[in-house]
Amino acid sequence: MKEQAPLNIQWFPGHMAKTRRLMRESMGLVDLVVEILDARIPYSSKNPEIRKMVGQKPRLILLNKADLADRETTRRWCDYYRKAGVSALAVDCKSGRGLNGFAPEIRQVLSEQIARFEARGMRGRPLRLMVVGIPNVGKSSLINRLAGGRRAKVEDRPGVTRGRQWVALSDGLELMDMPGVLWPKFDDPIVAENLAFTGAIKDAILDTEALADRLAGRIAHVAPALLANRYKLAEAQLSDRRPMALLTSIGQNRGMLLPGGVIDTERAAIMLLDEYRGGKIGALSLEQPGERRGE
Ligand code: G4P
């Protein structure tokens, strides 16, 4: 059957020019940029201009929400970035899993710079970091995990604009308290759909039922057993790719009926999106490395 066209999702990020300017200003103050991506959709959660903004500055990619993504796929994404010359770590900033590798990885990425500091008699010069990522990718969760209670006790430093403060972490690292908010590639309809599935663009104008049906179709494609298992879908239900068929079967199998026996697809849609976002269907990745150009 022919692949359906992606949904037309309208989303208008505000303050893009201001964000871009703030980010450029902050970039000059740090030694390394921590770029957070969503492990389920690394390509879609990547800002299209990040390379231009970061320039030659060292970068570390964190594939966050690894608890919600397929472990083997996330491992392949890490390899993929490393082969492209960028360090990448899989983490879960909600539980903190994977973060014990954070400081060592940064010291490794910045090893040449550390050696230069030492050669110039600046042993122990703090390494300054800034966290960037699209909305809801986990920037605050990461900062809270790393900085914890230390956040409240920071001082303003000369040369640092008000609102930007440094939090001292262990291992000689200093973290900029304010993360950089990036915008996603909102002009690519597939990307927009992926961001809507994961809940990254909560303020988008969406047709929830159409979105949930598309999501069901994507899961049926990447992890059919997980979908079938969660919603007790029979083979015929799972392979029926007519519009709304999967969502209707899911609603039916969950007994979501309106008076008169009509299946409540709206309720089924809200439930499916909720369960997917909460990881209840299982750990699954919607994007594989090498699948698309321009990663
Ligand atoms: P942001 O600053 O980049 O906008 O993102 P933020 O840290 O606020 O995180 C957005 C949502 O993602 C939060 O959920 C947060 O708990 C969740 N989250 C962050 N990191 C992870 C992770 O590694 N795994 C999982 N499963 N979730 C993560 P929320 O529902 O908005 O808030 P809450 O109910 O969790 O407090």
Provide an overview of this structure.
This protein has 295 residues and is an alpha/beta fold. The chain folds into two domains: 17-177, P-loop containing nucleotide triphosphate hydrolases (Rossmann fold); 189-277, Conserved Hypothetical Protein Ylqf, Chain: A, domain 2. 39% of the residues lie in helices and 11% in strands. Strands 1, 2, 3, 4, 5, 6 and 7 form a seven-stranded mixed sheet that branches. Helix 3 (71-83) links the parallel strand 2 (59-64) and strand 3. Helix 8 crosses helix 12. It is elongated, with a radius of gyration of 21 Å. It starts with 15 loop residues before the first helix and ends in an 18-residue tail after the last helix. Residues 152-161 have low confidence and may be disordered. Bound molecules: guanosine-5',3'-tetraphosphate. Guanosine-5',3'-tetraphosphate binds at residues 64-65, 67-68, 92-94, 133, 135-141.
Summarize this structure briefly:
The chain is an alpha/beta fold. The chain has 2 domains: 161 residues, P-loop containing nucleotide triphosphate hydrolases (Rossmann fold, 3-Layer(aba) Sandwich); 89 residues, Conserved Hypothetical Protein Ylqf, Chain: A, domain 2.
Helix-strand pattern, N to C? Answer: HEHEHEHHEHEEEHHHHHH
Radius of gyration: 21 Å
CATH superfamily of the largest domain: P-loop containing nucleotide triphosphate hydrolases
Mean of the pLDDT scores? 89
Query: What would the principal axes of the Cα set say about the shape?
Result: elongated
Q: What ligands does this structure carry?
A: guanosine-5',3'-tetraphosphate
Poorly predicted ranges (pLDDT <50, ≥5 residues)? 152-161
Per CATH, the class of the largest domain reads: Alpha Beta
The span between the termini is 28 Å
Give the number of domains: 2
Q: Report the CATH topology name of the largest domain.
A: Rossmann fold
Record field, number of beta strands: 7
Largest sheet: 7 strands, mixed
What is the count of DSSP helices, taking H or I runs of 4+ residues? 12
Structural class: alpha/beta
Helix content: 25-40%
> What's the CATH architecture name of the largest domain?
3-Layer(aba) Sandwich
Relative strand content = 5-15%
